[in-house]
Design goal:
Length: about 160
């Protein structure tokens, strides 16, 4: 029986060797798959981690950019309002200055017209006085000047007597 048992054992062992070989190959394959899975999982989790981190950074940058854009928009709006108000105020000041200058110009034109009228009156009076003085000067000149006396005498002589 012993022989029989050895034979069975050997047969069983022979039958088990291919199974053991398959088992070993399967275990090796499973070990490789587990290693590949671990590497892939690590790589994927590492990639996902960095991808999430990158996305988080991008989102934070976008929020920061959005905040800065909001601030810039507010500043532009304030500047626009201030500029518009400044332009309106400047326009009102220029209109007021123009009105004041027009009033001054009108006053100056009226004053110049009055002065021109007064000067015309003075010139007319002076012309009249000058004409009177020239007439009187000629009259005096004709009386006292010998040629003037001669002419007067000749006129008197040439005048027909009644």
């Amino acid at each position: 029986m012993r022989f029989y048992s050895i034979l069975i054992f050997n047969r069983t062992l022979l039958n088990l060797r291919p199974l053991h070989k398959n088992y070993t190959e399967d275990m090796l394959h499973v070990t490789k798959l587990v290693t590949y899975y671990k590497l892939t999982s690590y790589s994927l989790s590492h990639s996902v981690y960095w991808c999430c981190r990158s996305l988080t950074v991008v989102i934070e940058q976008m929020e920061h950019f959005s905040h800065r854009l909001g601030n810039l928009s507010s500043r532009v709006e304030n500047t626009h309002e201030n500029t518009a108000q400044g332009l309106e105020q400047g326009e009102r000041q220029r209109e007021e200055q123009l009105r004041v200058m027009q009033d001054r110009l009108g006053q100056q034109q009226r004053a110049m017209a009055e002065e021109r009228t007064r000067l015309k009156e003075v010139i007319t009076k002076m012309d009249t006085q000058l004409a009177e003085q020239q007439r009187q000067l000629e009259k005096m000149h004709n009386r006292e000047h010998p040629v003037g006396l001669y002419h007067r005498l000749v006129r008197q002589l040439l005048r027909p007597q009644p």
